[in-house]
Input
Amino acid sequence: MSGPLEELYQAIILDHYRKPRNRGTLPDPTVRMDGNNPLCGDQIHLELQIGPDGKITDIKSSGHGCSISQASTSIMTELLKGRSLEDAQRLFDIMRSMMQGGVVDEEEVGELIALKGVSKFPVRIKCAMLCWMTFAQALAEYKAGRNGSGTVVSTEDDK
Ligand code: ZN
Output
């Protein structure tokens, strides 16, 4: 895989890896969740602030891992900030579809498109999806009226 587009995507991933956005923790998060990808050693801690209007008013992440997992987390936090939960769920679905080789609307997904090439490497899909799986579980906890606990572990059978 080479060419101007792939180089651009690679540059976006490296930029997010080197300068991750929305790093840290929140003073009083609405919900939090941990994620772990034992295949690669990626770990993430995610915190969300959800407003009374059902919008994600703030989001922070911490943790460590490979460039794909870290860049994916950084891009995700930027994409999700300010979104309604419905919008966020839709982005999750789009990301999953993209990782399964689906065609996505570049206008809609923004810098997420930089991760499209990952779909060709099954092991790396878990790296890219870890933050999204963690986010989805955080959302499920929130919808169940909880503030989050436990760890999402990526396994062989999920994507
Ligand atoms: Zn990884």
